[in-house]
Design goal:
heterodimer, A: mainly alpha, 24 helices, B: alpha/beta, ten-stranded mixed sheet
């Protein structure tokens, strides 16, 4: 067998290996050269940008009012970039009444039209940058161009369009997203969609209800989840319909939404959701019960404290342990359930919230009446058992 | 003579193949990094923070004899920018004042909180909560002699769907949690775990457990490690993750879906490289269940960690890493070349066997046979020198490539002189540092074969301990 080394040597020692050495050295020099040049260029660019930012900031009021005509800065790429970023940052931070002069400046200078044009005609990074910039403008006329971005074949562009529409925080911007989602053929990350819809529908969650009614399956679940975040007392009846939906995720979202309502119907709806066959629906109902101020929730939470699911028990205990004025009575009721798991979960949550010390000192102050002494003993026993749970489990498992 | 020729052939093919793979990884990493930078431009972290859909996360901090830094580290972790955070410090039977310092600084109170040992661990002495910050819990447990056991206890106590394991002596940048979770948000249904970048802390200025000024360390041995870390994370992990073949998420900083970690039985206690072992088992499980998944790496969330400052500690660390590698590869050898494990069984694991585990063996055999071939005249002196020169030049090219990647993306070393020093050290990394690493890795193999799986402590300078309570 001829050696590979010999084979290479046959090519001539000045051949392959020498060329490879030269190429590697050339590569090293090119990389170092690139690093040095890039550093130099960036230092120079940021120095210039800094200088121009100071100059433009000192004339800011005149630029905004139009005293300095847009032609003076609009066609200098660096100046244009600086003015646009200052404008967009200001728009994002401004209240609605402060927006008009900023938007006027964008419109009069043609910056808005330039971004709309780029969003419609560019591709790749330039298009995505334009879509995001358009979203930040919060301008009505940006919405059609952003909506067109939703139909891009590129997923990244669609995501940029969704984010852009979300940033406008306008109800009108939610419609193109909702239409496409409802068609069932729109592919974008669920989280981006949910965030965009939450931003756009915050002032008008009713718009979501129509779409929830028209859709099915995962789309319906997604919309219900958004609705769950935005629900207001005005949505009461619609939420009651969703609370009896066939999809568990929709029922769970309705439970979450009900936590924000606290109407006369809330407690009875959450009562039935807390007995749902799906554990995560019961869990959301219990979480929602924790949010509402209603003494009537105690009996539902006590029932949930004896739930077969550990998470439901824990959340019920969490909610009960935070009902401070009633803690003494609740503890008695928990003991009366004679459910060890319920008592452990409750005592554990009292420990976590720090309320256990108050209860115990409360018992001590009251002079140890027979009922309270008995309660204290039960609590002390439960505390020991909770403490032992970890040790016992580990010991039973055989520790190293 | 014939043996020498064959050996040299194998060596040449091995060398060419490994360099081609590294070059390929570098190119993929550059493309992926640039794309990631573009994507970052469209992401607003404050919106992620404000989103009601941002899931809670539990930080698990295993601590064993960390009295010098624990209070400051925990303070910094509680100060991380994330909307729903829980921090669980697991005191793993420290012999020093770790627990006392925590107790004093955070006024810890014993709390009999329900603790269900889904994963077996050494017994807990107590669970503490802090009235100063309700997000903080401290588990005090018996030492089991391994970090994995402490992490498992933390996983048992965690209440969030995602867990993030952080070393007590490391520093996370304020936005690192939000940034690493952005990797999960991209596709929560598929992304099971995400790793962030670990960078070298030595030399940097730290105030109140936050990096104030990033500087290169002074000693050459530490600078070499800076280059190694850049190459390993920005090139290796970035590229492997691009193909969904990431074999490891650093134990110093990584986010995992808690349910999946529970399903695979948690971190394997007494695994030498528990981080590598967990990720390989996660790949195994997900492939066996035919679940669509992604284990990702995100290059911008940063964790700063202290690296060994002396040769002895470095030697121990490298030997331990190599033991960890064998300790994971050997139990998972049944995954090799099996269709059900897809690219993990066909590409990643064979790569790790051939180009990671066998590398020091092949290297030492290569050095020996080439010298013998040179002495016996099988190989000409001029060709030997040229080949040596090429190997050196190409390896330097790859190291400089990783510095370029750092320059193109995150530019943490902003000073000209720092970059110049990095570039100069790239020229000297391959002799004798590389050969020393080879010897330490061989020691690791030898120790593993002897059954010596002990964790040997590393000499550390320690980070600032200014309290931030």
């Amino acid at each position: 067998m001829g050696s590979v080394f010999k084979g290479i040597q046959k090519l001539g020692s000045a051949g392959l290996v020498l060329e490879a050495i030269l190429l590697s050295v050339l590569g090293i020099l090119l990389l170092i050269g690139f690093i040095v040049l890039r550093r130099w260029y960036r230092a120079r660019y940021f120095h210039n940008r800094n200088r121009r930012t100071v100059a433009l900031r000192s004339q800011w009021d005149d630029i905004l009012s139009g005293k300095i005509p847009a032609e003076d800065w609009r066609f200098k790429p660096l100046d244009c970039d600086i003015v646009e970023s200052i404008l967009l940052d200001s728009i994002e931070m401004s209240a609605a009444d402060k927006l008009p002069p900023l938007l006027d400046c964008l419109r009069v200078s043609g910056l808005l039209d330039m971004r709309i044009y780029e969003a419609r005609t560019s591709r790749g990074l330039a298009q995505r940058t334009a879509l995001l910039a358009l979203g930040r403008t919060r301008a009505m006329e940006a919405i059609p161009a952003l909506a067109a971005g939703l139909d891009s074949r590129l997923r990244e562009t669609r995501i940029a369009a969704v984010r852009g529409l979300g940033r406008t925080a306008r109800m009108e911007a939610a419609i193109p997203i909702l239409d496409r989602i409802a068609s069932g053929r729109f592919d974008a990350p669920e989280r981006s969609l949910k965030n965009a819809l939450v931003n756009c529908c915050r002032s008008c969650p009713e718009v979501l209800v129509n779409y929830v009614d028209r859709t099915h399956g995962p789309v319906r679940e997604l919309l219900a989840r958004v609705l769950g975040e935005l629900a207001s007392p005005e949505l009461g009846e619609e939420l009651l319909v969703l609370a009896s939906d066939v999809l568990p995720e929709v029922r769970a979202s309705a439970a979450r939404a009900l936590g924000n309502t606290n109407g006369s119907y809330t407690l009875s709806a959450l009562h039935s959701l807390a007995a749902d066959p799906e554990w995560f629906v019961r869990l959301r109902a219990v979480v929602a019960l924790g949010q509402i101020e209603n003494i009537g929730k105690i009996s539902i939470l006590l029932r949930a404290l004896c739930d077969a699911n550990r998470h439901v028990r824990q959340r019920a205990a969490w909610a009960l342990a935070r009902m401070e004025p009633q803690l003494h009575q609740i503890l008695e009721d928990v003991v009366a359930t004679k459910d060890d798991y319920a008592l452990q979960a409750f005592v554990s949550e009292l420990e976590r919230s720090g309320a256990i010390e108050k209860i115990v000192s409360g018992f001590a102050r009251s002079g140890h009446h027979s009922t309270e002494t008995a309660l204290m003993e039960v609590v002390a026993e439960a505390r020991k058992r909770v403490e032992l749970t970890g040790k016992a489990a580990a010991a039973a498992a055989g520790v190293h | 003579m014939h043996f020498l020729a064959i050996s040299n052939d194998i060596l040449f093919i091995y060398f060419a193949l490994s360099n081609l793979i590294y070059l390929g990884l570098l190119i993929v990493a550059i493309v992926k990094n640039v794309r990631h930078r573009h994507r970052l431009g469209s992401q607003r972290l404050e919106l992620v923070k404000a989103s009601p859909f941002t899931p809670p996360i539990t930080l698990i901090v295993p601590a064993h004899n960390e009295e010098r830094s624990i209070v400051g580290s925990v303070g910094a972790l509680l100060g991380l920018e994330y909307p729903c955070l829980e921090v669980i410090v697991v005191n793993d039977g420290s012999d020093d004042a770790t627990m006392e310092k925590m107790r004093l600084a955070y006024q810890l109170q014993a709390a009999r909180i329900l603790y269900i040992a889904d994963i077996r661990t050494a017994p807990l002495h107590a669970i503490y909560r802090s009235p100063l910050d309700p997000r903080l819990f401290v588990l005090d447990k018996e030492a089991a002699g391994c970090k994995a056991d402490a992490i498992n206890a933390g996983i048992n106590a965690a209440t969030s769907p995602y867990i993030c394991v952080v070393d007590a002596d490391s520093i996370l940048e304020k936005e690192s949690l939000i940034r690493i979770m952005a990797g999960v948000f991209a596709d929560p249904g598929r992304v099971m775990a995400v790793g962030g970048i670990v960078r070298v802390l030595n030399g940097s200025r730290v105030v109140n457990n936050q990096i104030e000024q990033v500087r290169l360390p002074k000693s050459p041995i530490e600078v070499m490690q800076v280059i190694e870390y850049l190459r390993a994370f920005l090139v290796g992990r970035e590229a492997w993750a691009g193909f969904n073949m990431l074999p490891i998420i650093s134990g110093a900083f990584g986010v995992f879906q808690r349910d999946l970690v529970l399903q695979v039985g948690g971190f394997r206690t007494h695994a030498v490289g528990e981080d590598l072992d967990l990720v390989v088992r996660m790949h195994r499980r997900l492939h066996e269940e035919r679940r669509p998944y992604h284990i990702d790496f995100i290059p911008d969330p940063t964790c700063w960690t202290e690296v060994p400052t002396d040769l002895k500690s470095l030697a121990r660390q490298r030997a331990r890493w190599h033991k960890g590698l064998i300790d994971t590869l050997w139990p998972n050898r049944d995954m090799l070349f099996r269709v059900r494990y897809g690219r993990i069984g066909w590409l990643v694991l064979p790569y790790m066997w051939i180009f990671e585990f066998f590398a020091p063996i092949i290297e030492i055999v290569g050095y020996t046979t080439i010298i013998l071939a040179l002495i016996s005249g099988v190989l000409s002196k001029s060709f030997f020198l040229q080949f040596l020169l090429f190997g050196y030049a190409f390896a330097t090219l790859l190291s400089i490539g990783s510095v370029l990647l750092e320059e193109m993306t995150f530019r943490r070393y902003s000073d000209w002189r720092e970059v110049a020093r990095l570039l100069i050290y790239c020229l000297f990394e391959h002799f004798p540092y590389r050969q020393l690493t080879m010897v330490w890795r061989l020691q690791g193999i030898w120790q593993y074969l002897r059954g010596d799986l002990q964790w040997r402590s590393m000499k550390r300078v320690g980070i600032s301990t200014d309290p931030v309570v």
